[in-house]
Amino acid sequence: xxxxxxxxxxxxxxxxxxxxxxxxxxxxxxxxxxxxxxxxxxxxxxxxxxxxxxxxxxxxxxxxxxxxxxxxxxxxxxxxxxxxxxxxxxxxxxxxxxxxxxxxxxxxxxxxxxxxxxxxxxxxx
Length: 125
Description:
The chain is of the alpha+beta class. Helix content is 34%, strand content 34%.
């Protein structure tokens, strides 16, 4: 299903990393797509790096943690991975359909793009 989604994403820059990891550029955001395993209990992880976050800021951390779980993020949440602030969405693969996959990837891209610029400006990062 993920490979089909990427084929249908037209001229977008995209890539295959392994049989459980892909990426696609949506606008100015590189969205990574992972499967936690290839079995029936697999989870889909869709994530985007917002910006390098080597020096953590308590005020920024509090701000994004308060956003987690709100309707503004549409089920996505902020976190930190490899010294980057990230936005991610995780759900079981079971029951996933192509339309929902497309919605998740598009949501991560749009929200990450919006908050990347907003947080950098708001907190002078």
